[in-house]
Amino acid sequence: MRRRRLRIAGTVQGVGFRPHLHRLARSLSLTGAAGNDDDGVWCEIQGLQLDLDSFEARVVSEAPPLARVDSVRSTAMPAVEGEQGFALAASETGSGTVAGTVPPDVAACEACRADVADPAGRRYRYAFTCCTDCGPRFTVVRSLPYDRERTSMSAFELCKACEAEYLDPADRRHHAQAVCCDACGPALSLETTLGEAVDGDPVEAAADLLGAGGIVAVKGVGGYQLACRADDGAAVARLRHRKHREEKPFALLVDSVEAARALVELDDLACRVLSGPEAPIVLAPRRASAPIAAGVAPDTRLLGVMLPATPLHALLVEAVGATLVCTSGNRSDEPIVTDDARVQPDLGDIADAVLVHNRRIERRADDSVGHVVHGGFQLLRRARGYAPGAVRLDRGGPPVLAVGAELKSTVCLALGADAHMSVHLGDLEHPAALAAFEAAVADLLELTRTAPELVVHDRHPEYLSTKFAASVDLAPRLGVQHHHAHLASCLADAGFRGPAIGVMFDGMGWGADGTLWGGEILVGDAGGYERVAHLRPAPMPGGSAAVRQPWRMALAHLHETFGRDLPALACVTDHIEDAPRVLDQCRPGQSMLTTSMGRLFDSVSALCGLVETATYEGQAAIRLEQAAGPDVRRYPVEISAGTPAVIEFSAVVEAVVSDLLAGRQPSQVSAALHRWVADVTVAACHQIREVTGLSTVALSGGVFQNRLLVELLLPELEQSGFEVLRHRQVPPNDGGIALGQAAVGRAMLAGRG
Ligand code: ZN
Ligand code: ZN
Ligand code: FE
């Protein structure tokens, strides 16, 4: 008889790992014990050497679907006399750093969905059915280790039947921390926005209301959502009006992959992602026959669809018998409501009723969003289902906290070889988002009991994340250039050390020379970078006004191309009264300069007459992308020699203007502009490869959310022999910045040590 102690690290808590050990031990007739502690899972096993070896191998090879084993450390121990059976110990909490992590929330598994659908079962139509393979995690956890008493399930005492399942190592719900049933768990109710109960079955009553064109606030996994029928134009319009969300697309909730397929075109990968445990919103091209009100997504041919993430959502969409709009429960762009006490003040005049339950949401998590482009799934918003899942770094190092950018804020804590990423926190300009940001920082440090050695922030002095980093006395600080962080993020995401050619196209970020960058080609890695090419700078007349009103930016690009002698396009004549003042702001020294590629998309969108005032971030560029027709024309590519090389925009602006004056359609101009951005990128990469010998290209920045551009650019780069790195685990937009900042911080500490 031999005995061993195993230490298993990784995502091993709250994913059915101890039951897995128990089953394995029993199948091999081993005795011993297992438990959770601050470092992950420990277990002791005793038996024949052969069986112990088999156990060790199968611990990893047969790990539960949601587990991620990073390491197994095995040490020999003296055998114990007369041990019987295999016991699961209660958790031990102690001091020290927690290496185990909170798993993300998991959509209802197939077995649980079957339980909910089984009229003979005791969980028939029970909205909170879950097991060790599925259910809420991150959003119900108060602290680690992940055990029921430290979750919002602690308020619900297990009934006898649930307790028997919880204690039975052979049961699917063995040690499932959120296990419950109708008799003992959370309960649903339908209430008016004043908190008065509505009679009848809550789901049926909510479905009736929705069927009649009503708007229902639904308490989801990581926050409240707002639902209405997606085929009811009046209901959708009402929701937009009440929510103050004019044109930004709404997501849709459907009851099955087949239903999703009837609305949008989905390839196999998109179907797999859609029905996976993360259950994100997947953007895909709509079918002409989709019975969806035009107001759901007025700017785009894409629809965002998702499957029910919980039995509650499944029951609701089934009871309505139609596709539902299911959008974040908030006013405009504020963070989604999680606190029951905020429902009345924040959603009271939006919703007609509230489908609510009595389990607390401990942590906010929006629905995640992504799309399949060029054969890969790319996240655009990383939250429920993914966060706080860590991005694995290629090596360990001292703890580094990165506070991200400002729009699409996320924070990141690099701890060991894990980069723990917060959920999407929103735009820090909103006080509630800023509060969520501060809470997320505290949360990351508290859950992992970590004191960072370095706090990394953006160089932008006005970002509230920068100001936060300066105001807290956590550790020494490091400011990292925005596009360097984008590059480092893409490299860390791809697990590539670099150096690489980094094509960083976005709205804008604070440049190293006091201008606003955004059309940058860098060469470097996490340790440093050189700016090897950029778009020619243009003034941003009126600063942020030029972002909201893209015609201002268009006038600037026209001014840089034609001087004060502006062409007679509608974009100019419509603003003829404002033009002199805007052109004055274009004179040297009167406005900030920007090299932003995003702003060039905005300008061309405005020149095409596609947008007047943007009602949400990225709208002008989205409309331009959506306007694109077949791609036939090519615009001239001009890149100067030298370092940094300058990518000239005036030739393309001239070509756009002459096309529009010649009566060509926005569809042709848009297609040609997308093609030009791809051409100019490929040409610049060739030029840089000749000098540096580098043939790996990393793509990052919000512009790479553009599907058409990626579809045009990737094949060309690949055909030219470049290896292309794209984001997979974090978004290419500023939601991925914190990861890159952390990587740069790590590199800086490593270089110093
Ligand atoms: Zn399940
Ligand atoms: Zn029960
Ligand atoms: Fe950016």
Description of the structure:
By secondary structure, the chain is α/β, with parallel strands linked by helices. The chain has four domains: about 1-90, Alpha-Beta Plaits (2-Layer Sandwich), CATH 3.30.70.100; about 190-370, DHBP synthase (Alpha-Beta Complex); about 385-495 and about 735-750, Nucleotidyltransferase, domain 5 (2-Layer Sandwich), CATH 3.30.420; about 515-525 and about 530-725, Nucleotidyltransferase, domain 5 (2-Layer Sandwich). It has 23 helices and 29 strands. β7 (about 215-220) and β8 form a beta hairpin. α15 crosses α20 and α20 packs antiparallel against α21. It binds zinc ion (2 copies) and fe (iii) ion. Fe (iii) ion binds near residues 482, 486 and 702.
Gist of the model:
It contains 23 helices and 29 strands. The strands form five sheets. It has a ten-stranded mixed sheet, with helices on both faces.
